[in-house]
Design a protein that fits this description.
Layout: H1 4-11, H2 30-47, H3 53-75, H4 114-134, H5 149-164, E1 167-168, E2 173-180, E3 187-196, E4 199-202, E5 208-212, E6 215-227, E7 230-242
Antiparallel strand pairs: 1-4, 2-3, 3-6, 4-5, 6-7
Helix pairs in contact: 2-3
């Protein structure tokens, strides 16, 4: 008496087909498995003319699922395909990548120079100043990483002003003596001094509501990480005493 898969196949009126590999043949890769699954599905479709439409649909649906599963395995790096993500393309002089297949160009490599690290820090504080003067939320994604706690506090200041309907009458942060140390691997360090000026806070009609007190000039250090998009601030540290 047929049991297990054989009984289910007999109930559906299906002949189980087995595929044997020739002795000594190498293991079939995912692409060969896809072709074999397609052939098997076509064969079963020819052998199911006498089954009910429901049984026929169940069998062919099962074969389609198998075919899809094998195709996904092949797409995830089958025969000879390297595992893991591809390394970023390295660009030559001029900052453009080598042409990629299909006529498109690979994205340029990020600028890893010391001036690029300095520009990132300057752009960070410029965005803070612009946001609090406009009474909007600061957008720091292009210059900092999500895990930067000091950056989150700066975003919180801009959010508080936005929620209260206030904006500053001038730039609050003023940088000076900005210097980048030699890069170490994927990390860069930028030192600078930061003065927080006293600014007036105005409402939407431009009326003065209160003042935000300033802070004396302090020494500061920004640790930056090199990403595929360029330098991003990872941490900000400020000296407790005035510079």
């Amino acid at each position: 008496m047929a049991t297990g898969p054989s009984r289910r196949a007999a109930r559906l009126g299906v002949t189980i087909i087995t595929v044997a590999m020739p002795p000594g043949a190498p293991p079939a890769g995912p692409h060969a498995a896809v072709a074999a699954a397609r052939n098997l599905r076509a064969t079963l479709a020819d052998r199911l003319p006498t089954t009910t439409s429901t049984a026929r649909r169940r069998v062919l649906t099962a074969l389609t699922a198998v075919l899809l599963g094998v195709g996904l395995v092949a797409g995830c790096g089958g025969e000879g395909a390297p595992g893991g993500a591809a390394l970023p393309a390295r660009s030559g002089a001029g900052g453009t990548g080598d042409p990629a297949p299909g006529g498109t160009s690979a994205p340029p490599s990020p600028d890893v120079s010391a001036p690029a690290a300095i520009r990132t820090v300057e752009a960070y504080f410029q965005e803070i100043n612009d946001a609090i003067r406009a009474g909007r939320l600061a957008v720091l994604g292009p210059t900092s990483l999500d895990g930067c706690q000091a950056c989150a506090l700066d975003v919180g200041v801009s959010r508080s002003l936005q929620q209260r309907g206030l904006h500053a009458d001038g730039p609050a942060y003023q940088l000076g003596d900005v210097t980048a140390r030699p890069r170490a691997g994927l990390a860069a360090t930028v030192t600078f001094t930061l003065r927080t000026a006293t600014v007036g806070l105005l409402d939407a009609a431009g009326r003065h509501v209160t003042d935000a007190p300033g802070v004396a000039t302090r020494a500061a250090t920004a640790q930056l990480a090199l990403t595929a998009q360029g330098f991003r601030i990872q941490t900000l540290r400020y000296a407790t005493a005035p510079a």
